[in-house]
Amino acid sequence: MTSMLLWWLIKPKTTFAKVALIATVFIINNSALIYGLTEFWGERFQVYLVVSILQSFMLYAGLITAALALLAYPLFKRKSRPIFIRVLAVTTYIVIVSLAIFNAYSPVVHRFTVTIDKPLAKPMDIALVSDTHLGRWFGNRQIKKMVSLIDAQHPDVVVIAGDIMNDNTIAYNNTNMHEQLSKLKAPLGVYATLGNHDYFGYDQQITQAVEEAGIKALDNESVLLDDSVWLVGRSDDMDLTRLSVDELLTQVETDKLIIFLEHRPSAMDEVSVLPVDLYLSGHTHGGQIFPLTILMDWLTPLNYGSKKIAETQFLVTSGYGIGPVPFRLGTRSEIWIITLQSGS
Known about the structure:
By secondary structure, the protein is an alpha/beta fold. The protein has helices at 2-10, 15-37, 43-76, 82-105, 140-153, 170-174, 178-181, 203-212, 245-249, 268-272, 292-299; strands at residues 108-116, 124-129, 157-161, 190-193, 216-217, 221-225, 229-233, 257-261, 278-281, 305-309, 312-316, 334-342.
């Protein structure tokens, strides 16, 4: 595909130029693949993913350019302008890549109000962050921005729904991210659960790093906030010893408001029949890059956003970080501020 698009764009004239073009694409792609497979699903594999996605954006640019050309010619009845079309294709590609990077590194704050039919003396503001994936692509600058955005909203409590780091603590330690992460504060505390990327062999180190930054890791534990709201945190599906939702709820008083925090939204059916008032999770990234943004809507019960089932309000965030690749297309890095209020 890449060879065909570059062939159309460059129009190689000589046999040498044609062979060189195909050989260059072949060598770059296979070198990236071999390099990635030396650390499958690790940081080297992520480099291969970046190379692949940048080429998929070329396909998007080609399709958009072709569609615009097919629409413009009958409309304006003008002759084909090959140079203009090529400039349009390159410009479209640059716009797509720029938009994908902008969406990844320019977070937005969303607000959501949840009214619960249980007593609550005063409204409580919760900042929800997920999938920070702290690592090579996402570090101190993004943590500093996250802290600044959350501080500006003055939440009562901050919760992090897993995938705090991108597989390990290597980049976190090497760039002293602790200094920035430890600035994340809230009157009622900062709490986190671990996600699947936190369990790739570094779960103990990640838990230690998080707690040293002043964040309480809720590993199948509960905490009572302001004597009125139970926050229940459960470890990720990868933890085979984790407790069921039923077992965790035996730790709390169900006549009080209950918030359930975990990484993956995989227990919606289980939770919706229990006295959980608000369920918070991440993991999906909202699909992160088109067309996964659409496919995951079809394949998952709740890929992104809010949904009420029975008496439980569910909220799945697309996350603050970026995961293996520094792009978002069709989604955007985000923080949620949830206001809990009593309707009773």
